[in-house]
Amino acid sequence: METLEDSELCFPHLLNASCRKQARPHFEAMLIYVLLSCISLLTASLNLLVIVSISHFRQLHTSTNLLLLSLAVSDFLVGLIVMPFQILLIEPCWFLGDLVCTLYFFVPYITISASVVNMVLISVDRYVAICDPFSYATTFSQKAVKLCILLCWLYCVMYSFMILSDNLNQPGRFNSCYGECVIVLNGVLDLVLGFIIPISAIIILYVRVFAVAVSQARSMRSHVAAVKLQRSLTVTVRKSEIKAAKTLGVTVVVFLMCYCPPYCVSISGYNLTIGTSLNDFLIFLLLSNSCLNPLIYTFLYPWFRKSVKLIVTLQILQPRSRDTCVK
């Protein structure tokens, strides 16, 4: 008959080699289950709508929207793969083996770092569009953007290999007992390549973008009454670019609010333990950005709201729906 001590072990037959169960209170575990499940479903669904919208409607096949499409793909994978696997860490023991444990962290680092790099590309896109509009069409052609997106994902795969190399070479080497899922990152590399460089680039680029946007907005207000027709068209284009920059600026601000706290805690030297409330909150904050992005599009992008309406009502199944005007 199983003793009380054995019932507290993840693998009772391994005796002292097994980890002990450290179960959460039932109410707390159920709350996390329900919350993560709902957010996972919402994240995957909303980002799938973004993917279908940009992929289906020809009018949305712009360079900027291709970057938004790449961002939506990474966010969709977070909702489809990362969040459901995060639920497994709620359990007091890890039963899926050392290799799956390592791969569990490998996939999130690819998708999350892809979101970061895509944000950098979006910031560069807006910087060129606002600060050097005459060279934008050639610099950010669709062919060039597709190449950048491909390089972005290849870089994220290599980046994940680098920071998880020790764990991939020997899965489970950092576990102290059977039933744990512990990995050790290359902290310096992760901090520099995953946070300091991309976040600094995003902030510097958007400070410059908003400075130029404010200057152009003032110039347009003072001269709009005196411009000729050709000049008027140029003003309209610039207003459109500035509006797009402001909208994407909101996305960047939300991104920084979600990504900065976990790294700031790491920089402070505070040791996070898997399973603690603070660790769970920081992970939740990090992953919630993937759900917030499409919500931002819903409120700030009229084309997204119209596209969603056409998708939900199945009008995209009609002939020539790809040519429908959604702007």
Question: Top keywords for this entry?
Answer:
327 residues; mainly alpha; Rhopdopsin 7-helix transmembrane proteins; 11 helices
Number of helices: 11
Distance between the termini: 70 Å
CATH secondary-structure class: Mainly Alpha
Q: Count of DSSP E strands? A: 0
Query: What is the mean predicted local confidence, pLDDT?
Result: 78
CATH H-level homologous superfamily name: Rhodopsin 7-helix transmembrane proteins
- Might you state the CATH topology name? Rhopdopsin 7-helix transmembrane proteins
**Biggest pleated sheet:** none
Class from helix and strand fractions = mainly alpha
Any idea what the shape is?
Answer: globular
The number of distinct structural domains comes to: 1
In short:
The chain has 327 residues and is an all-alpha fold. The chain has 11 helices and no strands. The protein has a single domain (25-323), classed as Rhopdopsin 7-helix transmembrane proteins.
Walk me through the topology.
Layout: H1 4-7, H2 26-56, H3 63-88, H4 98-131, H5 133-139, H6 142-163, H7 165-169, H8 187-223, H9 229-267, H10 277-300, H11 302-312
Helix pairs in contact: 2-3, 2-10, 2-11, 3-4, 3-6, 3-10, 4-5, 4-6, 4-8, 4-9, 8-9, 9-10
Describe what this molecule looks like in 3D:
This protein has a single domain, classed as Rhodopsin 7-helix transmembrane proteins (Rhopdopsin 7-helix transmembrane proteins, Up-down Bundle). The protein contains eleven helices and no strands. The chain has helices at residues 4-7, 26-56, 63-88, 98-131, 133-139, 142-163, 165-169, 187-223, 229-267, 277-300, 302-312. Helix 2 runs parallel beside helix 10 and helix 9 (229-267) packs antiparallel against helix 10 (277-300). Mean pLDDT is 78; it is low at 1-6 and 228-237. Keywords: Cell membrane, G-protein coupled receptor, Membrane, Receptor, Transducer, Transmembrane, Transmembrane helix.
